[in-house]
Amino acid sequence: MQANGVALDDSRVQELAAKATFRDYMSIMKWGITIANLLATFAGMWVASHGHPSPLALLFTLVGTALVVAGGAALNNYYDRDIDQLMDRTKHKRAVAQGKVAPGAALAIGLSMSAVGLGVLYFFIDWQAAACAFVGLFVYSYLYTVWFKRHTTLNTVLGGVSGAMPPLIGWAAGSGGSLGLGAWALFFTFFLWQPPHFLPLAMKKTEDYRAAGIPMLPVVRGFRETKRQIVIYTAAMVPVSLMLTTLHYEGWIYFVVMAVLGLIFLVQAIRGLFVPADEDLVWANKVFRFSLVYLMALCIVLVVSVSIF
């Protein structure tokens, strides 16, 4: 094994793992990402229940989802430890790649948390919520981590299925297991949001991905094609996001706010086609940051608008 580019023998790995702190173990669960997924789960459940979710069901849904998402993150840390050691953005931050957390421990934590989370959703909520969580886990921790990420430029798009599952988990929990048109409108809004969020990040970290041999779109096809696809996915996301109003799940507050933010997002994406090459990364950083604002606003307005509506 290597850490920070230096080969480690098994005894050295064991020595480092013995010194691992609670914080090291917590870090492999990517709690920042987990919390973001919980916000999406909460929003989906709130809309599906028309603003009146059962407090106990809400608790079990969030706990179960948190365990599944955190477990999937641990599994990702376990499998990606080889390429994490090659990228500047991860080799100093990922505890498994650094040798601080033993790979076997990360695998055990990931499998255990995932299994418990799925059990919570299955036994305390419904099988539909558990099924959505399982699909998200399977796509992220196996299909994306093992296959898509390392073999195709469509990795971000195909892996986006897992990122769009949390609101679907919440919807299933809040609707008693019904996944109608509103649920899928929300799913595809989150699904289409993924490429305009992750592709600008991939542009910023192109050399990292190139060093690790990961076929991210900007590495294989270049910035021009990457920017074109960001525009395509953003343009598709805007009308899909507004369908929740046309389907009568959300009111006009949601429609107006998301239409304005969506158009701003789209204008920023289109600007990328015209910025000089030496400003590509500045533009990518702005789009990446705005994508986070858009996602947070989406989760908030989903809750606020349906409460008023």
The H/E string reads: EEHHHHHHHHHHHHHHHHH
Strand order of the largest sheet: 1-2
Shape: flat
Question: What multimeric state do the chains show?
Answer: single chain
Query: What is the tally of beta strands?
Result: 2
Total helical segments: 17
**Mean of all residue-level pLDDT scores:** 93
Helix residue percentage: over 70%
- Outline the low-pLDDT stretches: 2-8
Strand content: under 5%
What's the CATH architecture of the largest domain?
Orthogonal Bundle
Q: Give the C-alpha Rg.
A: 20 Å
Q: What is the number of independent domains? A: 2
**The CATH topology of the largest domain is what?**
Tetracycline Repressor, domain 2
Distance between the termini: 56 Å
Largest sheet: 2 strands, antiparallel
CATH class of the largest domain: Mainly Alpha
Structural class: mainly alpha
